[in-house]
Amino acid sequence: MPHDNLLIQPMLVLMLLTMLVWLYMYVVRNRYVIRQRINPQLLASPEQLNVMLPEHINRPSNNLKNLCELPVLFYALCLLIQQSAAVDSWFVGLAWGFVALRLAHSVVHCTINHVLTRFLLYLMSSLLLWGMLLRFVVISLS
Questions:
Q1: Residue 74 and residue 91: Cα distance in Å, rounded?
Q2: How far is CA 50 from CA 27, 55, 121, in A?
Q3: How many angstroms separate the CA atoms of 86 and 77, rounded?
Q4: CA 81-87-90 angle, 5° bins
Q5: Which domain holds residue 37?
Q6: DSSP 53
Q7: How far is CA 92 from the centre of its chain?
Q8: What is the CATH number of the domain that holds 117?
Q9: Which end of the chain has fewer surrounding CB within 10 Å, N or C?
Q10: To 5 degrees, how large is the angle CA 60–CA 65–CA 71?
Q11: Dmax over Cα atoms in the chain, in whole Å?
């Protein structure tokens, strides 16, 4: 694979993670709604979902929302880095680190939901992303 395409792999892995969390959310939520015989119309808004469904059922949905926040910046930044032909081992390593930490964050968030662990994983992944951004800004301005 050409060196400038190396950021595609972590982007695809993060997209696949997002797809898996989405699928997991629907399986968990629909199974609960069917087993509890909840009228789907009672779940018409996010507020109603939070009232009608227990926290452990809403975890995947909450994680999916997380996967549509900072990762959007990650995707854009990776594409900018590729477009400017600035891809190097540092950017690739930071990208894989971000994805690995987001994967760990999703596993914790969707399962045991230990808040301190989840927060530390989120913080570390965010710092890697901000490092990528700042490094790209410095390179771009040089």
A1: 11
A2: 17, 7, 25
A3: 11
A4: 110
A5: 3-141
A6: S
A7: 17
A8: 1.20.120.550
A9: C
A10: 115
A11: 61
Say how far residue 59 (Cα) sits from the centre of its chain.
Answer: 13
Query: 33 is written with which tokens?
Result: 């709604």
The residue with tokens 């690995």 is: 100
d(CA 96, CA 116): 22
Task: Report whether 49 contacts 38 (CB < 8 A).
Answer: no
Domains in the chain, number: 1
Residue 129, both tokens: 């992303």
| Residues 76, 63, 115: CA angle, nearest 5 degrees | 115
Residue matched to tokens 């898996």: 20
User: Full-prediction pTM beyond 0.85?
Assistant: yes
How does pLDDT run along the chain (142 residues), one tens digit per residue? Answer: 556 689 999 999 999 999 999 999 999 999 999 999 999 999 999 899 889 999 999 999 999 999 999 999 999 999 999 999 999 999 999 999 999 999 999 999 999 999 999 999 999 999 999 999 999 999 999 8
Q: How many angstroms separate the CA atoms of 115 and 119, rounded? A: 6
